[in-house]
Amino acid sequence: MNHRFFIKAEQKKDNYIIIKGKDYQHLALSLRLQQGDTIVVSEENNKLADYLVELVEFKDEEVIGEIKKIEKNKTETALDITMAQAVPKNRNMEFVIQKSTELGIKKIIPMLTERTIVRLSQKKEIKRLQRWRRIALEAAKQSQRGIIPAVTKIQNLEKIIINSDYDLVLLYWAAEKQNNFKKIVTEIEKKDISQILIIVGPEGGFSKKEVKMAVKKAGAYTVSLGPRILRTETAGIIALTTILYEFGELSFE
Ligand code: SAH
Q: Average pLDDT for consecutive 10-residue bins of the chain (253 residues)?
């Protein structure tokens, strides 16, 4: 498997790309790639194409690559799944970002709810966001994604609900005893669904008021993951897995 890198539009000129900075160090010093080796490159704004790039010239701080072939990306899911995850305690948000990126999430919204314990100062949030985005980037490279999932600023549940424009909104609720995703799939036209929002609560769960609001304002389904109570950082990953499985996204076509 060729190593994957992401570039910005300005790093590409005609058939050539340039890699510098941290990516250069990674490529040249850690991976010890050499002239003639091939890498796969995704352009941040061009989600559908993968470039097969031959490294043609190593300089002091950068390497020039030549695009030899452009292929359709085969690793992105057809679904566009966003996960609103109540920010968990400790560093568990990092786990959620890393694992959901591996699985194919498109966007992660760190979320604030009534019972969310973690509250960050603005300064801390900026630092945390940088770290979270770095984790998304690293996981995207490692898992051969065609895009880097977006990690947004921390948002309130209410704001997420009010602005929501998805084909399907799923609120995972430990008190839900009947509805699960397998059931929901029988009620919806799968082919009409591409934009999905998953909402996962904090350690203390959602308040009744929050659940009602999501159902009323966003037409959310309340969804169960079974009789065992999962930790918040487990719940989102499992929710994502069940959806991908039902949509046939955990296999080759
Ligand atoms: N005591 C809390 C449990 C919270 S678990 C409560 O009563 O709600 C943290 C989050 O993980 C929940 O808000 C929910 O989004 C999700 N979750 C955990 N286990 C779940 C289950 N069995 N079904 C659905 N969602 C679950």
A: 93 96 94 96 85 96 96 94 96 97 98 94 95 97 95 97 94 97 93 96 97 97 98 97 96 84
The angle at the Cα of 146, spanning 144 to 151, to the nearest 5 degrees, equals 100
238 lines ligand 1 (CB under 6 A): no
Confirm whether pTM is higher than 0.90. yes
CB distance 96 to ligand 1 below 6 Å: no
CB 226 less than 6 A from any atom of ligand 1 = yes
- Kind of pairing, strands 12-13 and 16-20? antiparallel
Cβ atoms 97, 145 nearer than 8 A: no
Ligand 1 centroid from CA 241, angstroms: 16
> b/e for 151-186, b at 16 or more Cβ within 10 A?
bbebeebeebbeebebebbbbbbbeeeeeebeebee
**What is the widest separation between alpha-carbon atoms in the chain?**
61
What are the Cα distances from residue 223, in Å, to 62, 119, 158, 208, 230?
A: 49, 27, 19, 14, 13
Ligand 1, atom 4, lies closest to the CA of 205
